Amino acid sequence: xxxxxxxxxxxxxxxxxxxxxxxxxxxxxxxxxxxxxxxxxxxxxxxxxxxxxxxxxxxxxxxxxxxxxxxxxxxxxxxxxxxxxxxxxxxxxxxxxxxxxxxxxxxxxxxxxxxxxxxxxxxxxxxxxxxxxxxxxxxxxxxxxxxxxxxxxxxxxxxxxxxxxxxx
Length: 168
Prior knowledge:
Layout: E1 4-5, H1 6-9, E2 16-23, E3 34-42, E4 46-60, E5 67-82, E6 106-107, E7 112-113, H2 115-126, H3 157-165
Parallel strand pairs: 5-6
Antiparallel strand pairs: 1-7, 2-3, 3-4, 4-5
């Protein structure tokens, strides 16, 4: 996907550009190309960016360490403010308190918007934090096909005894 020159976007029909996506995003390991669309609309002092896209990624189960495929679906919308002062160097302290209203994305009104980078970020935000191949995944099984819930090392015995004393 090519970068969008923001001033050129004001001359587009309805000040909107819609990009059909069917490609692999750099840095995102997927089995299938990312398919969907990204819509960028210029509203004077901000961009309204939205996307509907999906792909399939290979995850590793946190319990049994087996790999499984996961459908990654993005349905995102974000407002990106346009601010002339974005590229100006500011002499700010290394540490400072930031108000919630300052936690917004900003771009220069004379700069570029990179839809592939934005879509990559949205895809990464949708990756599951807790990766489980199945809700009832038993975890790592020993050679006899039993779950390894029992401590193998005798040093864990006191922890196992404490665990049995806890309710439920």
